[in-house]
Amino acid sequence: MSSAGEPTPGEEREIIEGMRAGDDRAFERMVRAHVGPLRAVALRLLQNPADADDAVQEAFLSAFRNFDSFRADARLKTWLHRIVVNVALQRLRRHKRQIARGAEIVDISELLPRFADNGFPEHFHRPWVQTSEELAARAQTREQVRQMIDKLPDNYRTVLILRDIEELDTAETAELLELTPGTVKVRLHRARQALRNLLERELELTH
Question: Which residue intervals define the domain RNA polymerase sigma-70 region in the entry (predicted)?
Fold first, then answer.
C-alpha cells in the first residue's frame, strides 16, 4: 500500500481484478484499504459509532455482492464512498430522529437573517462580513467546527456534509437525498448561514 494507506493505481487494479475473479484476499485488501475513510463518512452522517460500524459492514457486503455493477472507468474509492453514503442515508430515514445524538439541536430559523415587509434585512446583531470558511479557519480546532455542524437539524446537516465535506455535486446530493436540485441548493445556503452564525457565537464566547 502507499504511505497514506490508500492503494496505488496498480494496487487498485489488482484488487479489482481479484474481486472480479472471486478472490477472498482481494476483498480483505479492499476492506483494509478503505475501511477508515468509509467509517469516517458514516460517522459524520450517523453520529453514532455503533451505527457507523454497522453501516460500513453493510456497505462492504453490498459491494461484495454487487461487484459486477462496478464500472471499469470508475474509481473504487468513489464507488465504495457512494455505497456507504447510501447505506447511511437509508439508516437515517429508517431511524429518523431515534438515532442517538449527544448534541443539542438548534432551531435554524434563529440563525437565519430576518427580513422586513419592504424586503430589506432587519437588524441582525452578528456581523455578516466574514465567510464560513474564514470563521472556520479562526476556530480553535476542527472539533469545534464538527460540534457546530452536529447542532444543525438533520435535513440541513446532511446536505452540508455531502456538499461541503464529501464534495458531492448538487445532482449527486439531490439523487442520494431524493430531493430536487433546487431544494438542495436552498438547504445548503441556509445550512452555511446557520453554521457561520453558530461559529460566530462560539468565537464571541471564547474571545
Answer: 30-97
